[in-house]
Design a protein that fits this description.
By secondary structure, this protein is an alpha+beta fold. About 50% of the residues lie in helices and about 15% in strands. The strands form 2 sheets. Strands 1-2-3 form a 3-stranded mixed sheet. A two-stranded antiparallel sheet has the order 4-5. The longest helix is centred in the last third of the chain and has 25 residues.
C-alpha cells in the first residue's frame, strides 16, 4: 500500500498556520481542526516548519510566556516529508525511527498535497492486514 491510498481515503486537507501567528492562535487552530500538528506556511503550499501540541506543551512547562510567542519561535524547522508513492511500511519505519508523528506529503515540486499522521499509517496498515487475513481464511475454508 502506498501513501496515496491514505490520502485517497482521508483527503488532501492540511491544517496550516503562518509563522507570525501567535502560539495561542496555533492552539485554537489545532482545536478547531481536531489535529495534533499544523504545517507552518506563508502560502499554504510550501513548508516552512511544523508545530505540534507536543512542541507547545513542552515549551509551556519551561516558559509561562509561551502563549504570547510567535509560531516561528517555537516551530520545528527541519520537516521530514514523503511522496505519495512511498510505501506505507517505509513511512511507518521512518516515523518510528525519527520519532515523528506527522509527515507532510509533497509532490515532485515540493508542494504539499496532504499530510499523514502515525495514526493514519497504522489504521491503513491494519486495514491491509485485515484484508490479507480475510483472504487467507477464505482460501483455507473454500479450498482456493
Amino acid at each position: 500500500m502506498k501513501v496515496s491510498a491514505i490520502l485517497d481515503h482521508k483527503g488532501n486537507f492540511v491544517a496550516s498556520i503562518t509563522p507570525h501567528s501567535s502560539v495561542t492562535e496555533a492552539l485554537r487552530m489545532l482545536a478547531i481542526n481536531g489535529v495534533g500538528a499544523l504545517v507552518v506556511s506563508d502560502d499554504g503550499h510550501t513548508i516552512g516548519g511544523i508545530i505540534s501540541e507536543r512542541d507547545i506543551v513542552r515549551r509551556l512547562h519551561d516558559d509561562a510566556g509561551t502563549l504570547t510567542m510567535r509560531v516561528h519561535e517555537l516551530m520545528t524547522v527541519t520537516v521530514h516529508t514523503t511522496k505519495a508513492d512511498c510505501p506505507v511500511d517505509t513511512l511507518m519505519r521512518e516515523m518510528t525511527d525519527r520519532r515523528i508523528r506527522h509527515v507532510p506529503v509533497v509532490d515532485d515540486n515540493g508542494q504539499m498535497i496532504g499530510i499523514v499522521s502515525i495514526g493514519d499509517a497504522v489504521k491503513a496498515r491494519l486495514g491491509e492486514l485485515e484484508g490479507e487475513r480475510s483472504a487467507l481464511i477464505d482460501y483455507i475454508t473454500t479450498g482456493g
